[in-house]
Amino acid sequence: MDRIAGIINLDHEQDFLEELTYFRCGAAVPYAGRYRMIDFTISNMTNSRIDSIAVFARRKYRSLMDHLEQGKAWDLDRNRGGLFILPPDWNDPTDLSRGDLQHFHNNIDFIRRTLADYIVVSGSQSICNINYLEVLEAHKKSGADVTVVYKKIRDLQPEHNLAHKLTIDDSDRVMAIHNDQKSSNVYMDMYIIEKDYLYYLVENCIAHNCSHLFLDGIKGRLPEIHINAYEYQGSHALINSVESYYRNSRKLLNESAHDELFKEDSPIFTKIKNEPPSKYEGLSDVSNTLVANGCIVSGHVEDSILFRGVRVGKGAIIKNSIIMQRCDIEENAVLENVILDKDCKISNGRTLIGAPEKPFVVAKRKTM
């Protein structure tokens, strides 16, 4: 059976989430009540029997390393293969590479030594639940050099303006990769490629002074190379702005949308924290809300997401908001259309109201 290794390439993912990425990279941003964004990428790989995964991280990765640890949550703390967090090696005097090719060049041993026949390369901004074994099967059947994954989006949103789009012929061959804002074929920043061909592309791109493997080595070689397109048809959210984070997070309050992403046969894993069940006190009133473990709720909460360990005081009102870990909402505070990062404190009687299309965001550890 063909084996697959995984590379999660965070190098080109900019910090588009404003206050939420002041102190962390986008991949480490909390999502859906108890997860981080990178949890979905890693879980997709491990659910597809990928047991050797490298993470290419360049900036603000302390929080990411703290969350991933040795990969135990995904059964990746093993003697062979496992999880590797690989910042670029700045100490190689012979290194002429730049851009994300620095990661591929300086960590080429990961590619060279893996026993896998194929490599899946993915970012972390596409939240989905995908089976890469099905992508591999389509890739082998097509005979392509590279197979890219895309989602056909009928109702395009502002976040899709920044994504690459695909022009595809009747045989699923990619004819063009572009930024046409009207195109519905949204590239999900993931592709599968044979290991030896990836190695060749890396060496060739560096020799020609390129800086981006996908843009220069794959997109830039059309129509020289055969690129196949695989259409993913499941739940998908592209997170590259505060607005897209807020809107797609709150979509999970819909039960069918939640169940489409969190499937029983392909679970999403995350770092385990042993906390007690949430407690609802006195006159608390909670409706249409995701509530994680360890919360103590004494106020009114509706249409919101509470992460682990949130405290909501008596008389407090929370609507249409996302409250991250260990935030303390004191008595009679009012929050509407708000995102609170971790460890924030909202004082007694304080009112914070954002707009539905532009939530009010508070950076971590702030007291207001």
Main features:
about 375 residues; alpha/beta; Spore Coat Polysaccharide Biosynthesis Protein SpsA, Chain A; UDP N-Acetylglucosamine Acyltransferase, domain 1; 7-stranded mixed sheet; 5-stranded parallel sheet
* Tally of helical runs: 9
Helical residues, percent: 10-25%
Q: Quick one: overall form?
A: globular
Major beta sheet, strand line-up: 5-4-1-6-11-8-12
Total beta strands: 28
Largest sheet: 7 strands, mixed
The CATH class name of the largest domain reads Alpha Beta
> Quaternary state, please?
single chain
**What is the CA-CA span between the terminal residues?**
57 Å
Low-confidence residue ranges: none
- What is the CATH homologous superfamily assignment of the largest domain? Spore Coat Polysaccharide Biosynthesis Protein SpsA, Chain A
- Our Rg estimate from Cα atoms comes to 21 Å
Average pLDDT reading? 94
CATH topology-level fold name of the largest domain: Spore Coat Polysaccharide Biosynthesis Protein SpsA, Chain A
Q: Domains counted in the coordinates: how many?
A: 2
The structural class is: alpha/beta
